[in-house]
Amino acid sequence: MTDMRATGYQVFRELLPGVLPDDADSIGDGGFGDELLEIGIESVFARLWGRAGLSRRDRSLVTLGILIALRATDELQFHVQIARNNGLTEDEIAEVIYHSSGYAGFPAASSARTVAREVLQGK
Questions:
Q1: Are 74 and 36 contacting, i.e. CB atoms less than 8 angstroms apart?
Q2: What span, in angstroms and rounded, lies between the C-alpha atoms of 20 and 69?
Q3: Fewer CB atoms inside 10 Å of the end CB: C or N, the chain?
Q4: What's the count of helices (H) and strands (E) in the chain, helices before strands?
């Protein structure tokens, strides 16, 4: 395993404990496009989340805002949980959603609210 790949898996496990077994060396299931997941492990989790320039808590705030603006609800599901693991409270996550409504639009914020509510209620 390359250093970036190993770092990416370490960071992923820290951000989402229990999602990936400790002995797993691949995130994919062998299906179509699995390499995209490996690219994400190296480029997003190792190279971005592994940087020292911002705290993980701050990175969660930024990431939530970006995902809300993009209406990337699939990724938002994971990142709401990551935000909780990085110390954001439910009230702070709600504030990110409220604040996003002014910049990303009400429909994007409303979709984010639905996703966050499901994640936070454990559905």
A1: no
A2: 28
A3: C
A4: 6, 0
CATH for 55-123? 1.20.1290.10
Determine how many CB atoms are found less than 10 A away from the CB of residue 104: 20
Reduced DSSP (H G I as helix, E B as strand, rest coil) percent helix, strand, coil of the chain, to 5: 70, 0, 30
Give the start-to-end residue ranges of the domains of the chain. Answer: 1-51, 55-123
Q: What per-residue confidence (pLDDT) applies to 21?
A: 79
Residue 109 CA: distances (Å) to CA of 21, 57, 90, 92, 104? 33, 20, 15, 14, 7
Note the pLDDT tens digit of each residue in 60-82: 999 999 999 999 999 999 999 99
| pLDDT reported for residue 1 | 58
Q: Pull the structure tokens for residue 41.
A: 């492990």
Say what the pLDDT of residue 20 is. Answer: 84
- List Cα–Cα distances, 48 to 11, 88, 95, 118, in angstroms: 10, 19, 24, 27
Closest CA to 48 of 79, 24, 20: 79
Count other C-beta atoms under 10 Å from residue 108's C-beta: 20
